[in-house]
Give the backbone structure.
Amino acid sequence: MLPAIVVVAPLALLRRYDLTPAQLTRILRRIAGEGWIDRLPGYGWTFRPMLTSLSAYQDSYRFRLVIEPAAILEPTFELDRPAIEKVREQQQELVDGGIWTIGNAELFDLNRSFHEAVIECAHNAFFTDALCRVDTLRRLIEYRRSLARERAIVRCREHVALADLLLAGNTTAAAAAMRDHLATVGVEKTHDPAVTR
């Protein structure tokens, strides 16, 4: 379930956490940069909805399992070669050792960029918007449900292989690879006790 939107007044935060206005401003800007809150017109902040249960998190993977492979098979799908080459290179750097030094937030952002670059090739704003919204909702839970790096590197290799299929023009195989990738990583992250929490 997504929680109700909560509006927060800065004065209440200043009092509750004994912060200076400058400290609070820095913290709120950082939180806004992470995508957790939005500034309201005038005065105050509102927390964005987030996935707060394992069930909702599982639903997000089931939804992605439907839209991401389908987007690759859309008649409007046209490869953005520079974008796919860029995200492929980022994933290859992770495979080549970067996975061991990167933080959870940056890893999430690189993986998010990969999936969003692929779906944008469908040239369908509804697909792109849907994935961006799901990614924003799952950001916080992803930090707590990270795969062990030994498993994460496998997923990065799958990204590289998927990019290679797209760059070779094999959208049918790429859609199947995306389906397999999301199905297995979804099960790993929602059922595997080895996932870090």
User: Anything to note?
Assistant: Residues 81 and 167 are 7 Å apart (CA to CA). The chain has a mean pLDDT of 86. The two ends are 19 Å apart (CA to CA).
